[in-house]
Amino acid sequence: DTEVTQTPKHLVMGMTNKKSLKCEQHMGHRAMYWYKQKAKKPPELMFVYSYEKLSINESVPSRFSPECPNSSLLNLHLHALQPEDSALYLCASSPYTRQPQHFGDGTRLSIL
Amino acid sequence: GQQLNQSPQSMFIQEGEDVSMNCTSSSIFNTWLWYKQDPGEGPVLLIALYKAGELTSNGRLTAQFGITRKDSFLNISASIPSDVGIYFCAGQTSNTGKLIFGQGTTLQVKP
Fold first, then answer.
1. Rounded to an integer, what distance in angstroms lies between the CA atom of residue A95 and that of residue B25?
2. What residues of B are in the A interface, CB distance below 8 Å?
3. CA–CA–CA angle B49, B53, B56 (5° rounding)
4. For the segment A14-41, what is each residue's pLDDT rounded down to a tens digit?
């Protein structure tokens, strides 16, 4: 079992909906990440949080809004998504940004 | 931008055979990581390499950090059906947390 927990596992939403993805870790890691992964492709980095502050935004469209309420929790708020945003969204964490990342099992997102 | 060339793209082997895959880059990396991803799950860290020339094992898996710091390989010995999955290499050049991933090697094992 992964120590990075993501909910929900599956999400279907319309283009006008607002929803949120949640990621939780209790390993005391101070760095957390959001990735987007298309089928049979490698994960693509979206955001990096270090000590609860956003340190990297890989030019992600504003319809994706990350939030780090505390050191254990990372959210990704979704609004007005497009069909091409359908993908597996992975969360990862690491003790610090220079150390190996551990992934959750992801949220499978489908945009209708 | 930085890119990793991972090969082979896919492999179909007989159970019990050894497997080798590698990643090369035009850039130097400080850290090399190898992950395995099963369908419907997130990538799982297999091996982390931190020094040029480092050779590290994890059970039947062995990985090496190339001397030039621009390449790494992963070997799997005596493959078994549960080795099936997609293997990704990833390199890190800085302390920002940004990983560069290879395109993945899909491994299929025939019992």
1. 26
2. 31, 33, 35, 40-45, 48, 86, 88, 90, 92, 94-99, 101-104, 106
3. 45
4. 998 999 999 999 999 999 999 999 999 9
> Is the pLDDT confidence value at B12 over 70?
yes
Cα atoms in the Cβ-side hemisphere of radius 13 Å centred on B110:
4
CA distance A61 to A82: 11
Q: Please state, in angstroms and rounded to a whole number, the distance separating the CA atoms of residues B51 and B96.
A: 18
**Which residue has 């990396």 as its token pair?**
B29
Maximal CA-CA distance, chain A = 38
Q: Which two tokens stand for residue A39?
A: 């089928």
d(CA A33, CA A102): 10
Kindly determine whether residue B99 and residue A45, on different chains, have CB atoms separated by under 8 Å: yes
CA dihedral of residues B7, B8, B10, B11 (deg, nearest 10): -140
Closest by alpha carbon to B72, among B82, B62, B81, B64?
A: B64
User: Is the pLDDT assigned to residue B77 strictly greater than 60?
Assistant: yes
